[in-house]
Specification:
The structure is a single chain. The chain is of the alpha+beta class. The protein has a single domain, classed as 3-Layer(aba) Sandwich (Aminopeptidase). Helix content is about 30%, strand content about 40%. β3 and β4 form a beta hairpin. α1 packs across α2. The chain starts with a strand and ends in a 6-residue tail after the last strand.
Length: about 150
């Protein structure tokens, strides 16, 4: 039986699962409370893999820009294309709305930077000491994806 992947909007019942995934994958995890607040204020998308929550995406829309706030893939599903599918969903879903998508990513998070670069994001700035970690402050790369008429 082939694996099934399904993208859907998150609901209140998903928040505990998202927070648990976040604790497993992030050195700076969002809390369940932060996910609940995002559910009310932002777009929260879930990727299910064979009925199991495998990843999530949180973004906000302001005027003609989108800010990618959080993208996570649970450990057993890493390197399966789920992160790219979620990112492509965000790009495609906002194509007729936005001129640009912004995000910040820890400068040391090379897998995420490679994911974003592979999808067409470019570094447009940096934030010194943006992330506070157990080992001290870590810089953030500010990246952007610009829509253009020639871009598919």
């Amino acid at each position: 039986m082939p694996a099934t992947r399904f993208i859907r909007s998150a609901n209140d019942n998903d928040m505990q699962v998202l927070a648990a995934i976040e604790r497993r994958i992030s050195p700076l995890p969002w809390t369940e409370h932060q996910f609940r607040e995002s559910l009310d204020a932002h777009v929260v998308i879930i990727m299910e893999f064979n009925g199991v929550t495998a990843g999530y995406l949180v973004y906000s829309r302001t005027l003609d820009e989108v800010e990618l706030l959080n993208l996570g893939v649970d450990l057993p599903f890493r390197r399966s294309g789920i992160g790219r599918q979620l990112l492509d969903y965000c790009i495609n879903e906002n194509r007729n709305f936005a001129v640009r998508i912004y995000l910040e990513v820890r400068a040391g998070n090379l897998p995420a930077i490679n994911l974003y670069t592979g999808a067409g994001f470019v570094q447009v700035g940096a934030r010194k000491g943006y992330y506070q970690t157990a080992r001290g402050a870590e810089d953030a790369e500010v990246m952007a994806y610009d829509y253009s008429p020639a871009r598919p």
